[in-house]
Specification:
9 helices; alpha/beta; Rossmann fold; single chain; seven-stranded mixed β-sheet
Length: 217
């Protein structure tokens, strides 16, 4: 699938959903706030969200870390429009910048005029990105020394009843969402290849997985 194809698909999926996305997703996009709480960027840090969607996470993080600057990219123009409005409503336009970009081919110097970030996070986006492993590997290369990549997404749900797993995955397929059961393993390989470290945890009986890949200082 080309960049234009995937971006167009995301626009079609979220053209109407974006207006009530945050009101409904809070019930099952679990682990987003623990991920934000774990970012703990240093003072005057640069923080990037890949797949920023409606801007909900960027606004939350910017409020929680008032001494950092935030950047967000998304491949859906529809979502970026909603995110832009959310940033303005929150009065954060001086600290949050948004841009249309494909995560796999993202050039931060060209888009934002900087080469790296102290923190990068991806919230429930790798399950929607066809080339998600390449996106995570590329994100690692954009970390400043000592930087961290935080990713939260659907887990393997091994601790949940089989009927629940089946129903959830059927429903997710309607929205082109595919849980990545090997997310922790992929994160570990990226860390190992880059001389970094990786930690992961399973949340809510493995409903969600949270990984943190750190680059050496």
């Amino acid at each position: 699938m080309t960049v234009l194809d995937h971006g167009g698909l995301m626009d079609r999926v979220y053209r109407h959903q974006r207006h009530f996305y945050d009101a409904t997703r809070k019930y099952y996009l679990l682990g987003r706030d623990p991920m934000i709480a774990g970012l703990k960027p240093p003072p005057r840090a640069a923080v990037l969200e890949i797949g920023c969607g409606t801007g909900r996470n960027l606004v939350q993080a910017a409020r929680q870390y008032p001494h950092s600057h935030f950047f967000g990219i998304d491949i859906s123009q529809e979502m970026l429009e909603t995110a832009g409005r959310a940033v303005v409503r929150a009065g954060l336009q001086g600290r949050v910048r948004l841009a249309f970009a494909d995560a796999e081919r993202f050039d931060p110097q060209r888009v934002f005029g900087r080469s790296d970030f102290d923190r990068i996070f991806i919230s429930y986006a790798v399950s929607m990105i066809p080339s998600w492993q390449a996106v995570m590997a590329q994100a690692f290369t954009h970390l400043a020394p000592g930087g961290e990549l935080h990713v939260v997404d659907f887990g393997a749900q091994r601790g949940l009843p089989a009927w629940f797993r089946h129903g959830l995955r059927t429903w997710l397929r309607w929205y082109h969402v595919t849980p990545r059961a090997d997310l922790p393993a992929v994160a570990g390989r990226i860390a190992s290849a880059g001389g970094g470290t990786c930690a992961h945890s399973r949340l809510y009986r493995d409903f969600a997985a949270l990984v943190v890949v750190a680059r050496a200082a």
